[in-house]
């Protein structure tokens, strides 16, 4: 079985930067170092960072005094930063510059009196952080159906969570055009996301089965898997190689592999190696069966 890898897969610029910042911080700071929430949605990488001395807290208040708080690539709202400042914590801001741009735009547009609409997942910390930068004014919609329920407004602006599929953002924009007197469109979707989604779709069209490697809690990994499934190809999401099931590759000549933006290269390589092994195993079994039958 041949295993083809998507032209763009794995760590994006913002995640790479956040991990490097966290490693440097652990090396250089004396006091305890914690990230607010797991630094990225990949348990294996979080475990590695933990061994280097980067712990995880759920709330700013859990960081002991004299400690350092790392803000992850998803960013955080001003209220979080204010709480950290009030507690005298040192803050290392690993917010991805593309997320920081969305935060800045949202704040400026809300301050200019526009009704800000954010297309994204309400529960995602990036979205919650951006809303916080508008002082809670921005309204989050997950798709066009929710946008259709919004009241009209004279002056609206629309932004996207950086990992949104472009088609969903465009569908919301189309709905808002019918509701807003004036609509300012700020496409804050990150290129890394678009490139990974396009590469995954392109590959899904040429293989019999797709595997998406990435943390179970990673939103962009889940979206890659959904896109491939919607393209009509059987798709399986795994965190690590041992989760691969030989049955997925029975009769498969060419399989595809992609990975979310928070999946490290070593996991992608392990998964690719194991897929090849399983492909060979199933091929050998199929040949054995054919020989016995004839
Ligand atoms: Fe940043 Fe885009 Fe990655 S927003 S964290 S480079 S997916």
UniProtKB/TrEMBL annotation:
Residues that hold isopentenyl diphosphate according to the record: 41, 74, 124, 218, 220, 262
Binding site for dimethylallyl diphosphate: 41, 74, 124, 218, 220, 262
Active-site residues, as the UniProt record annotates them: 126 (proton donor)
Residues that, per the record, bind [4Fe-4S] cluster: 12, 96, 190
Biased composition (Basic and acidic residues): 280-291
Annotated (2E)-4-hydroxy-3-methylbut-2-enyl diphosphate binding sites: 41, 74, 124, 162, 218, 220, 262
Role according to the record: Binds mRNA; thus facilitating recognition of the initiation point. It is needed to translate mRNA with a short Shine-Dalgarno (SD) purine-rich sequence.
Protein family according to the UniProt entry: Belongs to the bacterial ribosomal protein bS1 family.
Protein name as catalogued: 4-hydroxy-3-methylbut-2-enyl diphosphate reductase
UniProt source species: Desulfotomaculum copahuensis
Gene of this entry: ispH
Residues of the full protein shown: 1 to 294 of 731
């Amino acid at each position: 079985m041949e295993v083809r890898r998507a032209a763009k897969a794995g760590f994006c610029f913002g995640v790479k930067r956040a991990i490097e910042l966290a490693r440097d911080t652990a090396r250089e700071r004396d006091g305890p170092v914690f990230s607010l929430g797991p630094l990225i949605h990949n348990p294996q990488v979080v475990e590695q960072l933990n061994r280097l001395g980067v712990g995880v807290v759920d709330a700013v208040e859990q960081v002991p005094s004299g400690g350092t708080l790392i803000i992850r690539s998803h960013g955080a709202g001003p209220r979080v930063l204010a709480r950290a400042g009030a507690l005298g914590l040192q803050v290392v801001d690993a917010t991805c510059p593309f997320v920081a741009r969305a935060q800045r735009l949202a704040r400026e547009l809300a301050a200019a009196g526009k009704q800000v609409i954010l297309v994204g997942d309400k529960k995602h910390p990036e979205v919650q952080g951006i809303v916080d930068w508008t002082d809670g004014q921005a309204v989050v919609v997950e798709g066009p159906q929710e946008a259709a329920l919004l009241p009209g407004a004279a002056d609206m602006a629309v932004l996207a969570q950086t990992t949104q599929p472009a088609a969903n953002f465009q569908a919301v924009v189309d709905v808002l055009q019918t509701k807003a007197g004036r609509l300012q469109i700020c496409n804050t979707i990150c290129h890394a996301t678009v490139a990974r989604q396009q590469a995954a779709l392109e590959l899904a069209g040429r293989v019999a089965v797709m595997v998406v490697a990435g943390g179970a809690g990673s939103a962009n990994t889940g979206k890659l898997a959904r896109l491939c499934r919607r393209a009509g190809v059987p798709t399986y999401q795994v965190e690590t190689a041992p989760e691969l099931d030989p049955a997925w590759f029975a009769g498969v000549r060419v399989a595809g592999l992609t990975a979310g933006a928070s999946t490290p290269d070593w996991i992608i390589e392990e998964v690719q190696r194991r897929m090849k092994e399983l492909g060979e195993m199933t091929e050998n079994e199929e040949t054995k069966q054919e020989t016995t039958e004839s």
